[in-house]
């Protein structure tokens, strides 16, 4: 039983020692996008295909879809925001 307690305490001591000496390795930096594109679509009544094709093409280039807004009013409008990290 003493062996397990000593092993546990040794492990805790090693973990605390590593944590105290390597603070720069534990710093988390939030990801910031390298590029942001905003595309507006106002092509009339049926823009779903245009928006889908644009999103597919940009995704193949490494962009991620951040947000998209589409209206049902006539004429239809859409805004697509994409980011590349």
- Helix/strand order, N-terminal first: HEHEE
- Extract low-pLDDT stretches: none
Main sheet overview? 3 strands, antiparallel
* 3D shape: rod-shaped
Helix/sheet category: alpha+beta
Distance between the termini: 52 Å
How many beta-strand elements? 3
Radius of gyration: 26 Å
Task: Bin the strand percentage.
Answer: 25-35%
* Proportion of helical residues: 25-40%
Average pLDDT confidence is 84
Major β-sheet strand ordering: 1-3-2
In DSSP terms (H or I, runs of 4 or more residues), the helix count works out at 2
Write the layout of secondary structure elements.
Elements: H1 2-21, E1 35-44, H2 48-60, E2 64-70, E3 76-84
Antiparallel strand pairs: 1-3, 2-3
Write a structural description.
Helices cover 39% and strands 31% of the residues. The protein contains two helices and three strands. A hairpin with a 5-residue loop joins strand 2 (64-70) and strand 3. The longest helix is centred in the first third of the chain and has 20 residues, at 2-21. The mean pLDDT is 84.
Give the key terms:
single chain; 85 residues; alpha+beta; rod-shaped; three-stranded antiparallel β-sheet
């Amino acid at each position: 039983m003493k062996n397990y307690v000593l092993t546990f305490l040794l492990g805790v001591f090693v973990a605390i020692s590593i944590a105290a000496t390597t603070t720069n390795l534990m710093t988390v930096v939030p990801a910031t996008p390298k590029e942001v594109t905003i595309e507006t679509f106002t092509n009339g009544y049926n823009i779903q295909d245009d928006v889908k094709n644009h999103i597919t093409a940009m995704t193949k280039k490494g962009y991620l879809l951040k947000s998209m807004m589409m209206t049902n009013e006539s004429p239809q409008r859409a805004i697509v925001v994409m980011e590349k990290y």
